What does this fold into?
Amino acid sequence: MAPERFHIQVEETVLEDLKTRLDHARWPDAWAGDAWEGGTDLAALRSLAGYWRTRFDWRAQEAALNRLAQYRSRIGGIDVHFVHERGAGPEPLPIILTHGWPDSYLRYQKVIPLLADPAAHGGDPADAFDVVVPSVPGFGFSSRPETGGINNQGISELWATLMTDILGYRRFAAGGGDVGSGVTRYLASGHPDRLVGIHLTDLGIVRDLVNAPDPTLLSGAERDYQREARAWIAREGAYMAVQSTRPQTLAFGLTDSPVGLAAWILDKFRSWSDCQGDLADRFTADELLTNIMLYWIAGNFGSSARLYYENARALPPLPRIEVPTGVALFAADILPPPRDWAERHFNVQRWTKLPRGGHFTAWEEPELWVEDVRAFFRPLRRG
It folds into this structure.
């Protein structure tokens, strides 16, 4: 279906209901140990919820988002929401960028203008991109799958249709992190002839290393990764275990309680970002709450969490990816992959270690991320 312009207009009744729920939130006891050690800190969440209730201006955030060129198109039974900003340059390169969980298309909000119009931000117009940033099905303003679930491979097929059949691009670039990294890898595997190159900020949890039964068959870097990954999963992986096995049970509480939803999401933003324990060092309250609102408005926490379940059930293994690949590793991101493993599985043409930034890469360090993307794709544009 041809794309139609999309304008965000949340009904006032949804906002009034949210205020009522925040007014009547029930709070647990304070954690007796160190703040955040047992999960989201009570004082921090009370403070953010108070701001949410009395000072957060959704209409201002809504207006800012509506300044982006947003569309929806029906693809495979799903209404796919996406930003499509045309580049200002002699020959813009189309690029599709995919977010992850628990973020949203807001991951790329800061970099869209830098990519689309580099000259307006001190860059070279030859580096311009046509930027496409969809909301993953079940997230944001995309609809939930109508029949069953959809996994990373299925999303990659929707993206291929969006870029070629809907938007008319013969060849294009792709990038992503978290879930977006997985989707981008399946896109490159399934449609290598359409991809100029892929840019990734992580390679997910490398399960063949985590589960390798004989460490003597691994390189030293791979053994280090296995040890660190197992420790990280034991310490941080409860969310993944629940969302991969019982997402529906969790969805009841987090669809009903805005405070519960905020607690679940904020815990990951603090743990995974380069904030040194202080969320305000990386994100404003408005940024955090706008992202949470994208889960609250449509009541789609359950569908976003279900993606973990679907990926755990039926996601086929990937062969080696021959599409040119750039990997940008941000200093505080989780579980950076070993380069020797990556080079066996990808056609790695750029490998960059960046000095700052965490898991929410383009959101946390937009300038560093943009420069790495520009540098990686410059030689590929000529091809």
